[in-house]
Amino acid sequence: MIEIKHEGCIQCAGCCSVCPTSALELVGGKIVFYPEKCIKCGNCVRICPANVIELKK
Ligand code: SF4
Ligand code: SF4
Predict the structure, then answer these.
(1) Number of domains in the chain
(2) For all residues of the chain together, what is the average pLDDT?
(3) CATH number, domain containing residue 26
(4) Nearest atom (ligand 1) to Cα of 33
(5) Which atom of ligand 2 is nearest to the CA of 24?
(6) Is 55 exposed, middle or buried (0-12, 13-18, 19+ CB in 10 A)?
(7) Ligand 1 pocket: which of 3, 9, 39 to mutate (most atoms within 8 A of CB)
(8) Which of 14, 16, 24, 41 is most deeply packed, by most CB within 10 A?
(9) Whether the predicted pLDDT of 39 surpasses 80
């Protein structure tokens, strides 16, 4: 499970492109997260330039 602080997101879509399971999608200027697809690889956390994604238990 990840948590996104949407207020700080700059909509770069970087997290979407590095997600191996397409669990993140930029829809209408907002990142949508599909928790059932997430394998907790941490790619999105590492790539986010705004540092707004956190990996949770
Ligand atoms: S942790 Fe990995 S699988 Fe989960 S949303 Fe981020 S990039 Fe996708
Ligand atoms: S990588 Fe970070 S700043 Fe870029 S779209 Fe994803 S959450 Fe937003």
Answers:
(1) 1
(2) 97
(3) 3.30.70.20
(4) 5
(5) 6
(6) middle
(7) 39
(8) 24
(9) yes
pTM reported for the whole predicted model: 0.95
Residues in CB range of 20: below 8 A, 6 or more apart: 39, 41, 43
Among 53, 24, 52, 47, smallest CA distance to 37 is for: 24
Nearest atom (ligand 1) to Cα of 37: 3
Residue span of the structural domain in which 44 resides = 2-55
Per-residue pLDDT at 30 exceeds 80: yes
**49: CA distance to ligand 2 center in Å?**
7
